[in-house]
Amino acid sequence: MRRSAKAVEQSTGQLADSADRRTQLASDRTLLAAERTYAAWVRTALAALAAGIGARALVRDVLPAWVGQVSGSILIIFAAFCLVAGVWRELHGVPRDPGPDMKPMPRGMLIIMNFFMLVVALAALIGIWAS
Question: Which of 27, 42, 73, 92 is least enclosed by beta carbons within 10 angstroms?
Fold first, then answer.
């Protein structure tokens, strides 16, 4: 009887440890999924920025100038929106206490990096209308 009580006590402790570990791993997966979503926002923004600049350059000789400027501007504004939405989602959608295994990206790095890309997008927008 004593031996079975000890075995039950050990298995209960192992189950608790196992549940804690599963919770921790689930939290890590959530953090990694949020970072992949942030990367998708940035990737979409960079693609839209490149498409906006390219649209302006490609349609300049074929269509009236305003068509290239408007379509390029729309794509660049969409790129700026993606940058802002991506950092907002990353800062407000990630659990701040993911567990000891994972560390989230530093908030300062996210803000500085997205701010720099936003400045580039705004410079491209000004460049489209200035030329």
Answer: 92
